[in-house]
Amino acid sequence: MKNTFIYKRATLADFRQAIDEYGWIVYEKAISQRLISDITAAFDSSYHIRREIQMLNGIEVNMEGTLHHLLEKDNFSLELLSKLYCHRELKDFLGGNYILNGINGVINSKKTRTYIQNVHRDVRTFSSENKIMIQMIVVLDDFTLFNGATHFLSGSHKLDRRPDEKYFKSYAQQAIAKKGSIILFDSNLWHAGGINYTRKVRRALTLGFTKPYIKQQFDYPRYLGYEFGETLAADLRQIIGYNARVPASLHEYYQPVEQRMYKSDQG
């Protein structure tokens, strides 16, 4: 595919051209196999915790194989984010500082039928030229034609309306990629998870990044703890959202500039 590159060799110009023309780009050989193994090793236990809550709250239908909000103190997530994968591209697309909107996982098995297999885009409101959100897929198992590789309708990030189902199936391409690859795509792009016809699961991480003034799906700074944030490197504090918090009391609001919860460089 013309929008596939070796991660360490790709240029910013490659990203700009591919993301404008196709709406998505594949970076091969991006993440070490050691880190990939650490991520997949955590999937089963993380899934069981979340599946129990889904079932307890009566929302298990069409949610099988989905793991939401995997940012935790003692798993792979902090190391992954600290590597700043595609940092140059994310800053370029979003026009400066950005924060994590969500970090989720998918376990696609032969029996799985979930909402992510419907044709959709990851922003509710079409943002056109105003780039507010970009998605990242971390490929944990090879994406193939047979195990449910994601379908992307190239160029559809420039379309306001949802494409016809028949048209999507006729023209969408599957993102064939090796384990350890990264796929970036414009959140306006229409796409759908594929069906896994094999006996093995196909796993992936899905991360969303936004301009800092966009509300996060989950309050990661409050969940991890404000004091914990003080122990993190500056880049990681920024990405997790510690520089774009919302005060919850007058005491938190009335602070000197350097101690304010929402920093002046967050847009």
Descriptive notes:
The strands form two sheets. A seven-stranded mixed β-sheet has the order 1-2-8-5-10-4-3. A three-stranded antiparallel β-sheet has the order 7-6-9, with no helix packed on it. The longest helix is centred in the N-terminal third of the chain and has 24 residues, at 33-56. Strand 1, helix 1 (12-21) and strand 2 form a beta-alpha-beta unit. The protein is of the alpha+beta class. The protein is globular and about 55 Å long. It has helices at 12-21, 33-56, 77-82, 87-94, 165-171, 220-224, 226-229, 234-240, 250-253, and strands spanning 4-6, 24-28, 66-67, 99-108, 133-139, 151-152, 173-174, 182-186, 191-192, 202-210. It contains nine helices and ten strands.
Core attributes:
267 residues, alpha+beta, seven-stranded mixed β-sheet, three-stranded antiparallel β-sheet, 9 helices, 10 strands, 28% helix, 18% strand, globular
Summarize the structure.
Helix content is 28%, strand content 18%. With 267 residues, the chain is α+β, with helices and mostly antiparallel strands.
Q: Helix- and strand-based class?
A: alpha+beta
- What string, H for helix and E for strand, traces the elements in order? EHEHEHHEEEHEEEEHHHH
- Amino-to-carboxy terminus distance: 36 Å
Query: What form results from the Cα inertia axes?
Result: globular
Number of strand elements:
10
Tell me the strand order in the biggest sheet: 1-2-8-5-10-4-3
The number of distinct helices, counting runs of at least 4 residues, comes to 9
> What is the CA-atom radius of gyration, in angstroms?
19 Å
How would you name the oligomeric state of the polypeptide chains in this document?
single chain
The biggest beta sheet is recorded as: 7 strands, mixed
Pick out the low-confidence regions.
Answer: none
Proportion of strand residues: 15-25%
Share of residues in helices: 25-40%
Instruction: Return the average pLDDT rounded to an integer.
Output: 96
